[in-house]
Amino acid sequence: MEAYTSFAEVYDTFMDNVPYQEWADYLEERLKEYGIEDGLVMELGCGTGSMTQILSEKGYDMIGIDNSEDMLELAQEKKEKTGRDILYLLQDMREFELYGTVRAVVSVCDCVNYVTEEEDLAEVFRLVNNYLDPDGVFLFDFNTKYKYQEILGDQVIAEDREACSFIWDNYYDEEEEINEYELTLFVQCEEQKSLYRKYQELHYQRAYTLEQMKELLAAGGLIFEAAYDAYTLEEPTSKSERITVAARECGKKDKIKR
Question: In this structure, what CATH number is given to the domain that contains residue 192?
Answer without folding.
Answer: 2.20.25.110
